[in-house]
Amino acid sequence: MRLLFGIGFILAGLAFLFYPQWEKKVYEQKQQQLIDAFELLASENEYLATEKAAQTHTAQTAVPTAMLEGAIGVIRIPKIDLEMMIFAGANEAVLSKGAGMIEPEKEFGKNNVGLAGHRGATRGKQFNRLDELVPNDAIEIQTKTANYEFIVMDTFVVDRNQVEVLADQREPLLTLVTCTPVGAKNPTKRLIVQARLSSKS
Which catalytic residues are annotated (predicted)? Predict the structure, then answer.
């Protein structure tokens, strides 16, 4: 009996230890599936040039296409190894899938576009490592029609009701928003990363 109890205790400990990494791996695989499907759809005019390609496209994206409802693009931050989908809106359903575009009517490269993201407790998941960014770090945005590179100007913390950080400025900006500190219950502070447009292609 003691042996069984001991084995059960060890197994529970191992599950507790490895669950965060397993959860992160599953999340990353889901993100990659969404990104692959998005990139296929973004170039579908060229991809569907032949009947055979069209059949392959349908087979490969039948499931992901439904998951891509509201998809706007992809955000990549090389320094912190971040790559995740961007969806319209910033409600819980959206943030469970990726980053949320707080004001979907705004345009990258024209307005101050705000992107919100959860800050999971697992290192590297979602916006968890956003606090590691410093001025001159690069942030890449890919949409169906263009690619943008933004350069970080500043990082700072505000109260959650200080929405003026999302107001349009004289130049196009990208504003990343996430809760801080990590793991806080009902946090009232927001970590802000603001970046200016560097290039568009």
Answer: 118, 179
- As a whole number of angstroms, the distance between CA 108 and CA 115 comes to 11
Respond yes or no: is residue 179 known to be catalytic: yes
DSSP state of 109: T
Catalytic status, residue 180: no
Q: Are residues 51 and 144 part of one domain?
A: no
Burial of 88-101, coded b for 16+ CB within 10 Å and e otherwise, reads ebbeeebbebbbbb
Choose, from 118, 129, 189, 196, the residue flagged as catalytic: 118
Question: Residue 161: which domain range?
Answer: 70-201
- pTM over cut 0.70: yes
In tens, the pLDDT along 106-150 reads 999 999 999 999 887 666 678 999 999 999 999 999 999 999 999
CA distance 2 to 190: 49
pLDDT at 1: 58
Half-sphere exposure of 69 (CA within 13 A, CB side): 5
Claim to verify: residue 63 and residue 84 sit in the same structural domain: no
User: Among residues 68, 88, 106, which one ends one of the domains?
Assistant: 68
Compute how many other C-beta atoms are within 10 angstroms of the C-beta atom of residue 82. Answer: 22
Whole-number Å distance between alpha carbons of 190 and 157: 6
Query: Total domain count for the chain?
Result: 2
